[in-house]
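On clarity, I found the account of how folds are encoded harder to follow than it need be. What matters is that the chain and its backbone geometry are given together, residue for residue. The format is easy to grasp once an entry is in front of the reader. For illustration, here is how one protein appears when written out as sequence plus structure tokens.
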Amino acid sequence: MVSKHSSAFNTSVQNAMDQYHSLTEAFVNWDSNAVSSKSKEVETNLNNIKLDEFTPEVKQTANNSLDLAKKDLQQMASANSIVDKRHRLNSLTQNLYDFLRAVQYDEKKVYLNECPMAFNDTEPGDWLSTTDSIRNPYLGLHHPHYGGAMIDCGSTKSTIDFTKTK
């Protein structure tokens, strides 16, 4: 199937999503320094997304979501604690999800996953994935209480799938 978007747009979004997945993997590994550096890489890639092909309404909605995502990334990079960084990941995820829906990204399916116990074992946290398997960035491999036992804790909450309408 052929995307309704330009190759340049799809490549720029895919580059940003690849960096986002590297960021979530840094969370999986409880690597706060990598989270800070990866967040800057994601921001750079978000800055490179070109929205010229969209209507003014879609462009405005998409830019609003991207601007909020960039603020999340800046706060994530400067936060001292991994918990604060994870709160920014949750917000970043929602903003990227809103962006992908606004532009009707159709290059591949994107899954919105949820960890039901991301914060204080009682509050949920979300992340995006391009596969339907769970690799939880909130509980990760080195949780102080669970170790790596909860790496697959979570479920798919929603799916962005505009691939069918290409």
About this structure: The first strand starts at residue 110 and ends at 119.
